[in-house]
Amino acid sequence: METTASEVETAWAVIFDAVSFGLVLVDADQRVLRWNGWMTRHTGVASPAAIGQSLTDAFGAALPASFVTAMGNALRYKLPVVLSNVLHRGPLPVYAGLPPANPADRMPHAITLTPLQISPWGWCCLIQITDSSRSISREKVLQRHTDRLSREVMTDSLTRTFSRGFFDQFYHQEFTRARRQGTRLALIMVDVDYFKAYNDEYGHPAGDKVLTTVAQKLQGALMRSTDKLARYGGEEFAVILPDCAQHNAMAIAEHLRQAVLDLKLPHSRSGNSNQITVSLGVSAMLPGDRCDAAQLLISADQALYAAKAHGRNCVQYRDPQALAGPP
Amino acid sequence: MALSEQQLDALTEIFNIGAGRAASSLSDIVGDEVLLSVPRVEFYRANEINAGVLSLSSARLGSVKQQFRGPFTIAASLLFTEERALEIVQEMLGSQVQREDLVEYEQEAMCEVGNIILNACLSAMADTLHISFESTLPEYASDTPDVVIGRIVADPDNPVMLILHMNMTIEKRRSQGTLIFWLSSASLDQLVQHLDQFLQRV
User: Fold this and answer.
1) Could you say which of A66, A69, A82 has the minimum Cβ distance to residue B138?
2) Which entry of A46, A141, A154, B30 is 20 to 30 Å from A256 by CA?
3) What's the predicted TM-score (pTM) here?
């Protein structure tokens, strides 16, 4: 089938008006050569009224300095320019619906400026304007989902401290960082004494409540925002202390023990007193130590068992170097 | 591949002119003074490049890439750590946006910042050397440093890397970015020829 040049031109004009984004072609003096249907639908300015006008006159509004600079650069250096809807809040007066309820309420949009050399006009600049409102709302929804899910995964549902999953990830990350940066790292394991007996005596709902209370007390007693408390499992908690020396970790552990004691939670079947107490095991790594992440964790656990063996309601220390073996 | 001191000085000067242009565009956007400078320019072979050489250590790197074509071809990328990108975007937006909302904006914003910086550097080169370039639109990518750098050095046609370390100051806070221009040996020869012509003129 034969098509004439003018038929092709008409076809392109129809397509130009049908596309779902704004297209404006301006010459080197920034006078409008073409203005598509999308532009008319979202500015209220018809193509014949815009053609031949400067951009400012076509839009009937002053354009922001950043847009003017970008246009100038695109035409001067003949290099394409992007304007995101992030760094420019609605630079052009385009609206989702006309007339706009509020002229300040512009459609959020992103702009691409492409310099083109087109035979009848010489150097021109093609301005493409895309509506970003849908991608913005979609991203917001996705972000909210992501935030909620990561919060859920990171948080222990009973005590609202960090979860075991978070602990595993954060501990690995902090251990690697301490190794790389040559800093110290300490761990405290905390276990509620005679907790099974407490559950047997007062029932599981009361046991859950005690765990939550103890967790909140431990959390409140941690002063440094870098220290992270996680529920390690059952009635056991773990504290990761980045860049913390042995004597500081011991002092913090002692402070935690005292904080739980101060709660004065009654426990008639406690083997060592008449209230809820905790045993704590501490282990700390020095920059030059040869131990690995698992060995530091095992030493803290061994220190906790030592505290249990030592009569509970106390703090014990184990050196991770003891597990690392000879150099 | 060894460039003379004079040639390297000329390139550093060209990129500082570009940095000045980019800073002026960025200042327009931020509405506050943005300072950019390129203290040094270095050449490397692709196989010498790693995250250490580029002074970029981070879990993820972002990159904005444009291909420039003229008398010679340059593939240009701006690389930055994602932490720095977030900070840059936060400083550019000021208090308009909450920090937690920034992640969704970071890519678009950095794409624009990269576009401004790359265009400014290459337009300064074009003006100074009396040549002209055309360019593709900027493309944004983000990945682990190994993947990002691996992709760059994997291009066998472009074995020469020109690395610019760029300092950026927004609202009195300093950040660093790294610009990588990678060229074929033939393009490097062309660049050197144009530099020599420029040096003869001055």
Assistant:
1) A82
2) A154
3) 0.64
